[in-house]
C-alpha cells in the first residue's frame, strides 16, 4: 500500500496552521521519538517536519510527495535549481500571507539623496535571502543590481554598509520600521500553498492525492462558509437572496401560523455585520449565523 509523505515547517510562521489544516482533513499522527517523522494513523499520509527552506528541495528530489510552503520559497528554489519550474502549486491555502519588498534606508537629512524609485537601484547592492527571485523580478523591470546574498538578518545590511537596499519578506512591517527602512516597492506577493513535484507518481499515490485534495478543498471552503438562518416576509425573498454573499438558491420554508418564511442558506463568502444590518433593513428577523464544520461538494 502506497503512502504519501508531506513536508511541513517544523517551527515558524506556517507550522501551526499547516498541521491544523491536515488535522481538519481527518489525519492523525503518531509522533516519532525524534519528532521529525510523524506516522499517519488511519490514513496513509505521513509527515516530515523540516525547515521551510528545505521543503521545495525535498519535493524536487522526490523525498516527499507534497509540501506546505510559501510561494516565495518555492519560486526561489525553482529559479535557483530548476530554471523556474519543477513544482506545482496544487492549492493556495489562504494563510502565511506576506510580501517580498524592496526597502531602502530612511534618509536622515534632506540633503542625502534618498532613493524614491526602483530604477535608482541600477548598479547598487541589494541584500537578500531570495537572490534568484529578486534578480529575476528586478531584471524583468529592466534593473540590474549587485545581489548580496545573506541567509538571515538582511535588515541590518544597509546600516552595516554592506548593501544600499534590501529585498526581504514583510508581513507587519515591524522589522523594517525597527531598522529605519522604508518599503519602496512590493515585488512579489506570497501565501502558503500545497506544492507537489511535476514528476510522475504511481496510480495509487495519484488516487490518494485526489482524495486528500478533495478533503482539503472541503476544509478550506467550510472555514470560509457560514450557515445562515433567518425569517422574512415572502416578498423580500429576492432581495434577501441578493444580499447573502455567495448564495444563489436558498432553502425556503413556510412558518407555521405566520405569513413570513424561513430562509436557510450557506454563504460561501465572509459575512460582515454590514450584511446582517442590510438583511434586517429589508425585513429579516431572527438572523442566526452558524459555522460550517465539514463540507463535501
Ligand atoms: C521575515 C523577514 C523579516 C520578518 C518580517 O523573516 O525576513 O525578518 O519576517 O516580518 P514583519 O514585517 O512582521 O516584521 P521570517 O520570520 O520569515 O524568518 P525566516 O526568514 O528565518 O523564515
Ligand atoms: Zn525560513
Structure description:
With 297 residues, the protein is an alpha+beta fold. 29% of the residues lie in helices and 32% in strands. It has nine helices and 16 strands. A hairpin with a 5-residue loop joins β14 and β15 (260-267). α3 packs across α4. Bound molecules: 1-O-pyrophosphono-5-O-phosphono-alpha-D-ribofuranose and zinc ion. The site of zinc ion has 3 residues, from loops.
In short:
With 297 residues, the chain is an alpha+beta fold.
Supply database-style keywords.
binds 1-O-pyrophosphono-5-O-phosphono-alpha-D-ribofuranose, 5-stranded mixed β-sheet, binds zinc ion, 297 residues, single chain, flat, 29% helix
pLDDT < 50 runs, ≥5 residues: none
Q: Name every ligand kind in the structure.
A: 1-O-pyrophosphono-5-O-phosphono-alpha-D-ribofuranose, zinc ion
Overall 3D form: flat
Helix percent band: 25-40%
For the biggest β-sheet, the strand order reads 2-3-4-1-5-12-6
Rg computed from alpha carbons, rounded to a whole number of angstroms: 25 Å
The main sheet comes to:
7 strands, mixed
Strand proportion: 25-35%
Number of strands: 16
Mean pLDDT: 94
N-to-C SSE string, H for helix and E for strand: EHEEEHEHEEEHEHEHEEHEHEEHE
Give the helix tally: 9
Judged by helices, strands and strand pairing, the structural class is alpha+beta
From the N-terminal CA to the C-terminal CA, the straight-line distance is 27 Å
Amino acid at each position: 500500500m502506497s503512502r504519501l509523505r508531506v513536508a511541513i515547517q517544523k517551527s515558524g510562521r506556517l507550522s501551526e496552521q499547516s498541521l491544523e489544516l491536515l488535522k481538519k482533513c481527518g489525519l492523525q499522527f503518531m509522533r516519532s521519538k525524534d519528532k521529525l517523522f510523524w506516522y499517519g494513523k488511519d490514513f496513509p499520509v505521513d509527515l516530515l517536519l523540516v525547515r521551510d527552506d528545505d521543503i521545495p528541495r525535498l519535493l524536487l528530489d522526490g523525498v516527499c510527495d507534497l509540501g506546505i510552503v510559501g510561494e516565495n520559497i518555492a519560486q526561489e528554489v525553482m529559479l535557483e535549481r530548476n530554471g523556474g519550474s519543477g513544482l506545482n502549486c496544487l492549492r493556495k491555502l489562504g494563510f502565511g500571507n506576506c510580501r517580498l519588498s524592496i526597502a531602502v534606508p530612511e534618509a536622515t537629512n534632506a540633503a542625502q539623496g534618498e532613493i524614491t524609485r526602483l530604477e535608482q537601484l541600477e548598479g547598487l547592492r541589494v541584500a537578500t535571502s531570495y537572490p534568484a527571485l529578486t534578480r529575476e523580478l528586478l531584471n524583468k523591470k529592466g534593473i540590474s543590481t549587485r545581489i548580496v546574498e545573506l541567509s538571515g538578518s538582511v535588515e541590518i545590511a544597509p546600516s552595516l554598509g554592506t548593501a544600499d537596499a534590501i529585498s526581504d519578506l514583510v508581513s507587519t512591517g515591524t522589522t523594517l520600521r525597527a531598522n529605519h527602512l522604508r518599503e519602496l516597492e512590493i515585488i512579489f506577493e506570497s501565501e502558503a500553498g500545497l506544492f507537489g513535484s511535476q514528476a510522475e507518481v504511481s496510480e495509487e499515490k495519484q488516487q490518494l492525492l485526489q482524495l486528500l485534495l478533495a478533503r482539503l478543498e472541503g476544509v478550506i471552503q467550510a472555514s470560509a462558509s457560514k450557515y445562515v438562518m433567518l425569517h422574512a416576509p415572502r416578498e423580500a425573498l429576492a432581495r434577501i437572496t441578493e444580499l447573502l454573499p455567495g448564495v444563489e438558491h436558498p432553502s425556503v420554508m413556510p412558518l407555521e401560523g405566520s405569513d413570513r418564511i424561513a430562509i436557510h442558506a450557506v454563504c460561501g463568502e465572509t459575512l460582515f455585520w454590514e450584511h446582517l444590518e442590510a438583511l434586517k433593513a429589508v425585513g429579516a428577523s431572527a438572523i442566526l449565523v452558524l459555522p460550517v464544520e465539514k463540507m463535501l461538494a
